[in-house]
Amino acid sequence: MCGGFYCSRNSLICLNLMYIVVGSLLIASGIYGNRYTDLPILPSIVGCGIVLIGLSILGLYGAAKHHQVSLFFYMIILFCLFIVQFAIACSCLAVDQKKQISFAEEGWNNIPDNLKEEVQTTFTCCGFNSSVINDHPSCDAINKICCQSKPADDCACSPCLPKLKDLIDSAFRVSGSIGLFFSFTELLGVILTVRYRNQKNLHNSAFL
């Protein structure tokens, strides 16, 4: 009968395997958005992904062995992670475009010149915003690409902000949506763990 000891154990194992996939998605989405913009909130998404993968390993061990101590710490940490991830996900989804640009500009000012050059080369742009002067390495090589049909003295590449807007918005929305959706699966994991800890193995008269 589903809802018994083995059903709860197998459900918890499957849930933790899913957490590994979710953690990988969180890490990938955070790195994807943070690669070119260095947004301050996205490393938190990556951190949640790393913690979730590590925690899922603990959960797999506790579920497979019905280990009471492992399951207890797994349950407590998972609930804390649910609160943190839920808050971060809501923050990502609540950030408007003006704040996104502000975060991105702050990140641009903090990244090294070699990364700025990589962004400029990738997106064929120069500098972050036209209103900011001397915020970028030399754009001579990039301008030659932008100005193949015009004299270089009368032509310059456009700033990177217009080309990064969609990437920045996508990074926030994807990270926030993934984090919000799967934070509720963590709450489900807490409930399932509480139930599983209190169930007895019919083939074993004592808890492990």
| Overall 3D shape | elongated
The largest β sheet comes out as: none
Q: Write down how many β-strands occur, each being a DSSP E stretch of 2 or more residues.
A: 0
Strand % is: under 5%
Oligomer: single chain
Q: Output the helix-strand order.
A: HHHHHHH
Q: Treating each run of at least 4 consecutive H or I residues as one helix, how many helices?
A: 7
Radius of gyration: 24 Å
Task: Specify the structural class.
Answer: mainly alpha
| Termini Cα gap | 22 Å
Secondary structure: helix percent: over 70%
Low-confidence parts, pLDDT < 50 over ≥5 residues? none
Your description of this structure?
The chain is an all-alpha fold and 208 residues long. The protein contains seven helices and no strands. Helices cover 74% and strands 0% of the residues. Helix 4 (97-110) packs across helix 7. The mean pLDDT is 77.
Summarize the model shown.
The model has no long low-confidence stretch (mean pLDDT 77). 74% of the residues lie in helices and 0% in strands.
List the helices and strands and how they pair.
Elements: H1 5-37, H2 42-65, H3 68-94, H4 97-110, H5 113-123, H6 140-146, H7 161-197
Features:
208 residues, elongated
